[in-house]
Amino acid sequence: VQLQASGGGLVQAGGSLGLSCAASGSIISIDVMGWFRQAPGKQRDLVARITRAGSTNYADSVKGRFTISRDNAKNTVYLQMNSLKPEDTAVYYCTALVRVTSYWGQGTQVTVSS
Length: 114
Description:
By secondary structure, the protein is an all-beta fold. Helix content is 0%, strand content 58%. The protein has no helices and 11 strands. The strands form 2 sheets. Strands 2, 4, 5, 6, 9, 10 and 11 form a 7-stranded mixed β-sheet that branches. Strands 1-3-8-7 form a 4-stranded antiparallel β-sheet, with no helix packed on it. The model has no long low-confidence stretch (mean pLDDT 95).
């Protein structure tokens, strides 16, 4: 399974960005898709995840600002980020859980200027 992320970039505080991540390869069913992020010098933390049925979980720091969604037919997960803050600056990684194996995308940089 390969994950290809797109989106990201540079935005001013208060702005919005959208990320997408498409999975390809020998996929029968992706159970959970999600996004993590890692700021310089910090650990990689969960941002949001969504099950195949559409149940979602968010980090407290992004609740009410970020929205995760997915298109099961396209094996694609999206992250809409609104009201961005400088502390949202990080490399964002998409992930997919297929049975008991987790796959990771290459990461995409999101930079929020103050």
